[in-house]
Amino acid sequence: MPTPVREITGIDPAALPDELLQSTEPVVVRGLVRHWPAVQAALASGAAVSQLLRRCWRDATVNAWIGAPEIEGRFFYDAQFSGFNFHAERLPLGSVLDALARHHADPRPPSLYVGSTTIDTCLPGFRDDNDLGFGKLQPLMSLWLGNRTRIAAHQDLPANLACVVAGRRRFTLFEPGEVGNLYIGPLDFTPAGQPVSLVDITAPDLDRFPRYADAARRARGAELAPGDAILIPSLWWHHVEATTPFNALVNYWWRDTPEHMDAPVAALLHTILCVRELPPEQRRAWQQLFEHYVFAADASTAAHIPEHARGVLKPLDAEASRRLRAQLLQKLNR
Fold first, then answer.
1. pLDDT (0 to 100) of residue 1
2. What is the pLDDT of residue 291?
3. Cα–Cα dist 26/230, whole Å
4. Contact 114, 64 (CB under 8 A)
5. Alpha helix (H) ranges present in 68-180?
6. What angle do CA 46, 50, 53 make, to 5 degrees?
7. Distant-in-sequence, close-in-space partners of 85: CB < 8 Å, separation ≥ 6
8. Which helix (H) or strand (E) holds 39?
9. Which residue from 235, 227, 256 is spatially nearest to 177, judged by alpha carbons?
10. Where would one find the signal peptide in this protein (predicted)?
C-alpha cells in the first residue's frame, strides 16, 4: 500500500497559507471545501449537484471522452499504440450529465470523462459561491467530471490543488525522480498532452515493467471524499482513480514562475533534437555545460563578466526573453 500523504487541518478556505501553496510535498486537506454549496448538494444526491451544475451552465460545449464498457474506465492507448481506446466529442454539458444519470445504475456502463474544462467558460457564476482564497495568486479553475475512471500517471508543470466535489477519488503519487521506474510512453503522442506511464498501477505487470516495483514501494497515496482537497506539487507524477458512478472535481492550477518563461518541455524536446544523438563524450561535455549554466547556476556563474556584457547569463526579464526567443526561432528556421 502507498505511504499515506501527509494531512493538515485548520486551514482557512478564504486565505490559504503559504505552508500549503508552496509545499514541495503532497498535502491532503480534509474538509477544505465541504462548506461549498456544490459539495453540500453532492452530499445530498448526485441529482442535486447535477441540478446545481445545470443552473450555472451557459450552453458551452465540453470535450468529452467516451469509451466502451470494456475499457473499465482506463482511458489509454489502443492495443497497437496507433490511437486510443476512446473517442472525443464536443457535447453540451447537459448531455454529459444526462448520460451520467442514465448509466448511473449500469453494472458495466460506458466510460465517460470530461477533463480540464475552464470553470469561467463553462460554468459562469459557479465560483460566486464555490471558491477559495489564493491571495495574489490567480490560478486557473477547472472542472473534471465523469463516472468510474482511471487516468494514467502523468505530471503537470503547474502546482495543483484538487478539490473533490462529488464522489470519491483515489490519488497515487510519485516523486519526479521516479520517471525511470514508471515506464513513460511517447513524449509527442499522448492522450491529453502529457506523457503518461504505461503501467496500469491497479494491476501492474511486473514481468513487463519490473522497475515499477521500486516506484510502488515509494508511492504516496490518498483517498478523498466530497469536500477534501489535495495539493499536488509541480511535476509530481499522479495517477487518479474515480471510484463511484458520479464524480466531480474542481482544481486550481498555478505556476510560481514569471509569465514570460516558456514551458520547460520545449527545452527537453529541443535537447533531444540537438544533443541526444551526439557521441557519448560530446553528450557528457554538454551535460557538464547544462549543469554549469542551468542546473547549478547562481550569482557566481557570470560574476567574472562585466554586468553590461552578460547577455543571456543575466536574469531574464520579459524583454530579454522575447529577444532570446527570436534568436532561437531564427536558428530553428535555418
1. 86
2. 96
3. 7
4. yes
5. 93-102, 119-122
6. 145
7. 67, 68, 71, 74, 75, 76, 77, 78
8. helix 37-44
9. 235
10. none
CATH 3.40.50.300 is held by the domain 3-254: no
Do the Cβ atoms of 174 and 237 come closer than 8 Å? Answer: yes
Residue 3 in grid coordinates: 505511504
- 10 Å Cβ neighbour count for 112? 24
Collapsed DSSP state (helix, strand, coil) of residue 258: coil
Taking the C-alpha atoms of residue 315 and residue 312, their distance in angstroms, rounded to an integer, is 7
Low-confidence stretches of the chain (pLDDT < 50) are: none
**In terms of DSSP H, where are the helices of 119-274?**
119-122, 212-217, 264-274
pLDDT at residue 174, as a whole number: 98
Listed in order, the ranges of the chain carrying CATH 2.60.120.650 are 3-254
Q: In what order do the strands lie in the sheet with 86-92?
A: 7-8, 27-29, 229-232, 159-166, 247-254, 140-146, 111-118, 61-67, 86-92
- Cα separation, 311 vs 302, whole angstroms: 10
CA dist., res. 232 & res. 235, Å (int) = 8
The predicted pLDDT at position 262 comes to 85
Q: What's the CA gap between 34 and 151, in Å, rounded?
A: 24
| Distance of alpha carbon 175 from alpha carbon 253, whole angstroms | 18
CB neighbour class for 218 (10 Å; exposed up to 12, middle 13-18, buried from 19): middle
Residue 112's SS3 state is strand
Angle CA(183)–CA(194)–CA(316) in degrees, nearest 5? 115
Torsion of CA 262, 266, 271, 277, to 10 degrees: -170
Residue with cell 469536500: 227
Query: What pairs with residue 140 in β-bridges?
Result: 253
243 within 8 A of 148, measured Cβ to Cβ: yes
> Cβ distance 89 to 76 under 8 Å?
no
Its pTM stands at: 0.93
> Strands 237-242, 169-174: parallel, antiparallel or unpaired by DSSP?
antiparallel
Residue 126 class from Cβ within 10 Å (0-12 exposed, 13-18 middle, 19+ buried)? buried
